[in-house]
Amino acid sequence: MSSVEFKENTAITVFGASGDLAKKKTFPALFGLFREGYLSSTTKIYGFARSKLSTDELKDRIKPFLKTPTEESKSKIDPFLELIEYISGPYDSPEGFQSLNQAIEKFESERKVETPHRLFYLALPPSVFVDVGKQIKEHVYAKNGLTRVIVEKPFGHDLKSSRELQEQLAPLFTEDELYRIDHYLGKELVKNLLVLRFGNQILNASWNKDSIQSIQVSFKEPFGTEGRGGYFDDIGIIRDVMQNHLLQVLTLLTMERPVSFDPESVRDEKVKVLKAFGEINLKDIIIGQYDKSEDGSKPGYLDDETVKPGSKAVTYAALPFEIHNERWEGVPIVLRAGKALNDGKVEVRIQYKPVASGIFDQIPPNELVIRIQPNEAVYVKLNAKQPGLSTSTSLTDLDLTYKNRYSEFWIPEAYESLIRDALHADHSNFVRDDELDVSWKLFTPLLQHLEHEDSPEPIKYPYGSRGPKELHEFLQRHGYIFNNGNYQWPVTKPQL
């Protein structure tokens, strides 16, 4: 293991400790960092929630979700659990927070901590962010040290609610103290986008309207709401993944080169390109809602008993974007996302313009594909002469599949990566307030269009399909060229 810069004697508090997010993501991420040597054994972790639990009961809830990829890593579970203590209390009154502060002060006193370092993770719904923030500021804030507060999406419901949340949090914590977590920014290939783009002249030189035909960022889930339709009904696919996750990926794909890896330089460029986005054309979108599968084995969205009868909730959307600047003017961009589809993956697909005609007859265009999940990969579709005496061409690839190339590396999960960034005060992969504001400005007119009383009906598509049948024509209209179908993902030929 390489030497690691520890943040010694840090007090980490996970609010909402008894909930699903903390159990399945936050505590496992802290364990992953501890397991790999990136979280000091001098750390103290407090779980805080309203549930009346003992510390041991919280540990029992967490333990099944702690990942141990090797036999050796299993020995790290008990030492990690020893770091945890549970405190119960309401989120909107002082009692529990005063008890929490007493516990943290006792810990810091025993460790002779001169400059307290306190990290608060709000694994909570936004409705209680402000209540918890006020109690932290009044009772648990590190007055003579460092306070960092991680908040989970959604950061508001639209532009108005986002601004209201900002206005309420701003008097409590500075922008330097706030970390708005979008876990997609912690995914390995999303964090790799800046290096891929700006660290490779072969890509950087062609990353513009002169070479690129179209850009797609797509998100596909192979399952529906599965009994969580009551939650999804008020969110929809656009708020759930497009206004945040996919837009974050798109800004990294299209922003200009930052002057350095300094967090504010990166975030400055993201805001700058967002301001160049044109309005979403409300007459040129696809919205859908999944229906039962063609064989009847899977239910439709409206069959979910937790969904409001007649709901128009959008479970699939394809949205066009234009960026009005020198680099991207005229390049069609599509974000698309859906539930209950035929596959589960998140990928970027950048298609290059066709070569000049002449010696080639309808040769497919090159494509750069960045598969964010699952099975991370970067590959380029290229044309090559078929082996042998033939002069005909076939579509092949240059392939960087992470599990093959980097099998010996530990690749952190998104939450592991982002919590470590917050511990080290690195804001690069967190959402800044002005960036959030511009993104809501872009999406709020669309959401209002889809949610007023005369909103359009979503197109029905079968559970397990590729989505609405209109997608093929939509992508063609937005610049995507479908190839002749002679490409296959490479399969290793068995040895004879």
Which keywords apply here?
alpha/beta, 6-stranded parallel beta sheet, 15 strands, NADP, single chain, 20% strand, 496 residues, 2 domains, Rossmann fold, globular, 33% helix, Dihydrodipicolinate Reductase, domain 2, 9-stranded mixed beta sheet
How is this structure best described in words?
The protein has 496 residues and is α/β, with parallel strands linked by helices. It has 2 domains: 11-152, Rossmann fold; 186-477, Dihydrodipicolinate Reductase, domain 2. Helix content is 33%, strand content 20%. The strands form 2 sheets. The protein has a 9-stranded mixed sheet with strand order 14-13-12-11-7-10-9-8-15, with helices on both faces. Strands 3-2-1-4-5-6 form a 6-stranded parallel sheet, with helices on both faces. The longest helix is centred in the middle third of the chain and has 19 residues, at 236-254. It is globular, with a radius of gyration of 24 Å. The protein starts with 10 loop residues before the first strand and ends in a 19-residue tail after the last helix. The model is unreliable at 491-496 (pLDDT under 50).
